[in-house]
Amino acid sequence: MPDFNALQTEIQYQFRDSALLRLAMTHPSVAHEQGRLVRHNQRLEFLGDAVLGLALTGELYEKFPSVSEGPLTKARAQMINRRTLAEQARQLRLQDYLILSRGEEANLGRNRASALADAFEALIGAVFLDGGFDEARSFVLRSFRRAFGEMTSIPTLDNPKGELQEILQSGSPGAPEYQLAGVSGPHHDRDFECVVTHNGVELGRGKGKSKKAAESEAAIAALKKLRG
Fold it and tell me: What is the pTM of this model?
Protein backbone atom coordinates (compact mmCIF):
# COMPACT_ATOMS: atom_id res chain seq x y z
CA MET A 1 0.00 0.00 0.00
CA PRO A 2 1.48 3.40 -0.96
CA ASP A 3 2.29 5.85 1.81
CA PHE A 4 -0.40 8.42 1.14
CA ASN A 5 0.73 10.46 4.16
CA ALA A 6 3.91 11.29 2.26
CA LEU A 7 1.88 12.33 -0.77
CA GLN A 8 -0.33 14.61 1.33
CA THR A 9 2.79 16.27 2.70
CA GLU A 10 4.10 16.73 -0.83
CA ILE A 11 0.90 18.35 -2.13
CA GLN A 12 0.48 20.43 1.05
CA TYR A 13 -3.06 19.23 1.60
CA GLN A 14 -4.44 16.84 4.21
CA PHE A 15 -7.55 14.92 3.19
CA ARG A 16 -10.51 14.64 5.53
CA ASP A 17 -11.63 11.61 3.50
CA SER A 18 -8.52 9.60 2.66
CA ALA A 19 -10.61 7.26 0.49
CA LEU A 20 -10.83 10.06 -2.08
CA LEU A 21 -7.06 10.19 -2.37
CA ARG A 22 -6.84 6.44 -2.80
CA LEU A 23 -9.56 6.59 -5.46
CA ALA A 24 -7.66 9.32 -7.34
CA MET A 25 -4.64 7.04 -7.56
CA THR A 26 -6.58 3.93 -8.66
CA HIS A 27 -6.01 3.22 -12.35
CA PRO A 28 -8.94 1.81 -14.40
CA SER A 29 -6.91 -1.33 -15.12
CA VAL A 30 -7.65 -2.51 -11.57
CA ALA A 31 -11.36 -2.77 -12.38
CA HIS A 32 -10.66 -4.45 -15.72
CA GLU A 33 -8.39 -7.07 -14.16
CA GLN A 34 -10.57 -7.94 -11.19
CA GLY A 35 -13.65 -8.35 -13.36
CA ARG A 36 -16.04 -6.80 -10.89
CA LEU A 37 -17.32 -3.37 -9.99
CA VAL A 38 -14.27 -1.57 -8.65
CA ARG A 39 -14.20 2.20 -8.45
CA HIS A 40 -11.34 3.93 -10.22
CA ASN A 41 -10.18 7.44 -11.02
CA GLN A 42 -11.84 8.22 -14.37
CA ARG A 43 -14.81 10.07 -12.89
CA LEU A 44 -12.50 12.10 -10.66
CA GLU A 45 -10.31 12.84 -13.69
CA PHE A 46 -13.39 14.17 -15.52
CA LEU A 47 -14.20 16.44 -12.59
CA GLY A 48 -10.61 17.53 -12.06
CA ASP A 49 -10.25 18.52 -15.71
CA ALA A 50 -13.08 21.02 -15.30
CA VAL A 51 -11.75 22.37 -12.00
CA LEU A 52 -8.26 22.73 -13.48
CA GLY A 53 -9.60 24.62 -16.49
CA LEU A 54 -11.62 27.00 -14.32
CA ALA A 55 -8.75 27.65 -11.91
CA LEU A 56 -6.25 28.48 -14.65
CA THR A 57 -8.75 30.39 -16.77
CA GLY A 58 -9.60 32.56 -13.78
CA GLU A 59 -5.93 33.18 -13.04
CA LEU A 60 -5.18 34.18 -16.63
CA TYR A 61 -8.26 36.41 -16.74
CA GLU A 62 -7.29 38.23 -13.55
CA LYS A 63 -3.57 38.55 -14.27
CA PHE A 64 -3.82 39.79 -17.85
CA PRO A 65 -6.79 42.20 -18.05
CA SER A 66 -5.62 43.76 -21.32
CA VAL A 67 -5.12 40.46 -23.18
CA SER A 68 -7.84 39.36 -25.60
CA GLU A 69 -9.60 35.99 -25.75
CA GLY A 70 -7.36 34.54 -28.48
CA PRO A 71 -4.01 34.78 -26.64
CA LEU A 72 -5.68 33.72 -23.40
CA THR A 73 -6.96 30.58 -25.13
CA LYS A 74 -3.49 29.86 -26.51
CA ALA A 75 -1.95 30.33 -23.06
CA ARG A 76 -4.44 27.95 -21.47
CA ALA A 77 -3.77 25.35 -24.16
CA GLN A 78 -0.05 25.65 -23.45
CA MET A 79 -0.64 25.02 -19.76
CA ILE A 80 -3.27 22.26 -20.02
CA ASN A 81 -1.98 19.53 -22.28
CA ARG A 82 -1.10 15.90 -21.77
CA ARG A 83 2.65 16.49 -21.64
CA THR A 84 2.43 19.33 -19.12
CA LEU A 85 0.01 17.45 -16.89
CA ALA A 86 2.19 14.34 -16.93
CA GLU A 87 5.17 16.48 -15.96
CA GLN A 88 3.18 17.97 -13.08
CA ALA A 89 2.44 14.41 -11.94
CA ARG A 90 6.12 13.47 -12.13
CA GLN A 91 7.07 16.50 -10.04
CA LEU A 92 4.78 15.12 -7.33
CA ARG A 93 6.09 11.58 -7.95
CA LEU A 94 2.55 10.32 -8.52
CA GLN A 95 4.05 7.31 -10.33
CA ASP A 96 5.05 6.03 -6.88
CA TYR A 97 1.45 6.16 -5.64
CA LEU A 98 -0.50 4.74 -8.57
CA ILE A 99 -2.53 1.62 -7.85
CA LEU A 100 -2.31 -0.54 -10.99
CA SER A 101 -3.33 -3.98 -12.13
CA ARG A 102 -0.56 -6.55 -12.43
CA GLY A 103 -0.86 -6.46 -16.20
CA GLU A 104 -0.57 -2.67 -16.36
CA GLU A 105 2.40 -2.78 -14.00
CA ALA A 106 4.11 -5.35 -16.23
CA ASN A 107 3.48 -3.13 -19.26
CA LEU A 108 5.28 -0.22 -17.57
CA GLY A 109 2.01 1.65 -17.09
CA ARG A 110 3.34 3.38 -13.99
CA ASN A 111 5.33 5.78 -16.15
CA ARG A 112 2.83 6.15 -18.97
CA ALA A 113 2.12 9.84 -19.68
CA SER A 114 -1.63 9.31 -20.08
CA ALA A 115 -1.90 7.50 -16.72
CA LEU A 116 0.09 10.20 -14.96
CA ALA A 117 -1.86 13.06 -16.52
CA ASP A 118 -5.17 11.40 -15.61
CA ALA A 119 -3.99 10.82 -12.04
CA PHE A 120 -2.99 14.47 -11.67
CA GLU A 121 -6.42 15.64 -12.83
CA ALA A 122 -8.10 13.04 -10.62
CA LEU A 123 -6.10 14.37 -7.67
CA ILE A 124 -7.42 17.87 -8.39
CA GLY A 125 -10.95 16.46 -8.48
CA ALA A 126 -10.38 14.70 -5.16
CA VAL A 127 -9.11 17.88 -3.48
CA PHE A 128 -12.14 19.74 -4.84
CA LEU A 129 -14.60 17.20 -3.40
CA ASP A 130 -12.76 17.03 -0.08
CA GLY A 131 -12.00 20.70 0.51
CA GLY A 132 -13.89 22.81 -2.02
CA PHE A 133 -12.85 25.00 -4.94
CA ASP A 134 -10.55 27.34 -3.01
CA GLU A 135 -8.40 24.44 -1.81
CA ALA A 136 -8.34 22.90 -5.29
CA ARG A 137 -7.43 26.24 -6.86
CA SER A 138 -4.59 26.73 -4.36
CA PHE A 139 -3.23 23.27 -5.16
CA VAL A 140 -3.42 23.95 -8.92
CA LEU A 141 -1.64 27.28 -8.66
CA ARG A 142 1.08 25.85 -6.39
CA SER A 143 1.68 23.07 -8.88
CA PHE A 144 1.75 25.25 -11.98
CA ARG A 145 3.97 27.83 -10.34
CA ARG A 146 6.82 25.33 -10.67
CA ALA A 147 6.42 25.22 -14.44
CA PHE A 148 5.29 28.75 -15.23
CA GLY A 149 6.49 30.83 -12.28
CA GLU A 150 4.24 33.65 -11.14
CA MET A 151 3.00 34.20 -14.71
CA THR A 152 4.27 37.77 -14.93
CA SER A 153 4.10 37.31 -18.72
CA ILE A 154 1.48 35.30 -20.53
CA PRO A 155 2.51 31.77 -21.59
CA THR A 156 2.64 31.28 -25.35
CA LEU A 157 1.82 28.20 -27.37
CA ASP A 158 5.03 27.52 -29.29
CA ASN A 159 3.95 24.36 -31.10
CA PRO A 160 0.17 23.93 -31.28
CA LYS A 161 0.38 21.27 -34.00
CA GLY A 162 2.75 19.21 -31.88
CA GLU A 163 0.56 19.63 -28.80
CA LEU A 164 -2.53 18.55 -30.75
CA GLN A 165 -0.80 15.49 -32.18
CA GLU A 166 0.42 14.45 -28.73
CA ILE A 167 -3.07 14.70 -27.23
CA LEU A 168 -4.75 12.83 -30.08
CA GLN A 169 -2.18 10.07 -30.30
CA SER A 170 -2.41 9.41 -26.56
CA GLY A 171 -5.76 7.78 -27.31
CA SER A 172 -5.52 6.79 -30.97
CA PRO A 173 -2.64 5.89 -33.32
CA GLY A 174 -3.94 8.12 -36.11
CA ALA A 175 -2.27 11.52 -36.64
CA PRO A 176 -4.23 14.71 -37.32
CA GLU A 177 -4.50 15.70 -40.99
CA TYR A 178 -4.41 19.25 -42.33
CA GLN A 179 -6.14 20.29 -45.55
CA LEU A 180 -6.24 23.59 -47.37
CA ALA A 181 -9.88 24.68 -47.35
CA GLY A 182 -9.57 27.88 -49.34
CA VAL A 183 -7.45 30.82 -50.48
CA SER A 184 -8.81 34.34 -50.85
CA GLY A 185 -7.57 37.87 -51.43
CA PRO A 186 -5.29 39.38 -54.08
CA HIS A 187 -2.13 37.57 -55.11
CA HIS A 188 0.11 39.84 -53.03
CA ASP A 189 -2.04 39.56 -49.90
CA ARG A 190 -3.47 36.06 -49.69
CA ASP A 191 -5.54 34.66 -46.84
CA PHE A 192 -5.35 30.91 -46.32
CA GLU A 193 -7.90 28.74 -44.53
CA CYS A 194 -7.04 25.25 -43.29
CA VAL A 195 -9.03 22.53 -41.58
CA VAL A 196 -7.66 19.86 -39.27
CA THR A 197 -9.34 16.45 -39.03
CA HIS A 198 -8.74 13.29 -37.05
CA ASN A 199 -10.14 9.94 -38.14
CA GLY A 200 -12.37 11.79 -40.58
CA VAL A 201 -13.82 14.18 -37.99
CA GLU A 202 -13.23 17.91 -38.32
CA LEU A 203 -11.70 19.37 -35.16
CA GLY A 204 -10.97 22.96 -36.11
CA ARG A 205 -10.43 25.60 -38.76
CA GLY A 206 -7.94 28.42 -38.91
CA LYS A 207 -6.95 31.35 -41.12
CA GLY A 208 -3.59 32.97 -41.69
CA LYS A 209 -1.35 34.76 -44.16
CA SER A 210 0.41 31.49 -44.96
CA LYS A 211 -0.63 27.87 -45.07
CA LYS A 212 1.59 27.16 -42.07
CA ALA A 213 -0.02 29.95 -40.04
CA ALA A 214 -3.50 28.73 -40.98
CA GLU A 215 -2.61 25.19 -39.88
CA SER A 216 -1.36 26.51 -36.53
CA GLU A 217 -4.59 28.43 -36.01
CA ALA A 218 -6.59 25.32 -36.91
CA ALA A 219 -4.62 23.34 -34.34
CA ILE A 220 -5.29 26.02 -31.70
CA ALA A 221 -9.02 25.88 -32.52
CA ALA A 222 -8.92 22.08 -32.17
CA LEU A 223 -7.12 22.31 -28.82
CA LYS A 224 -9.76 24.74 -27.60
CA LYS A 225 -12.52 22.38 -28.68
CA LEU A 226 -10.91 19.35 -27.06
CA ARG A 227 -10.35 21.19 -23.81
CA GLY A 228 -13.87 22.62 -23.76
Answer: 0.69
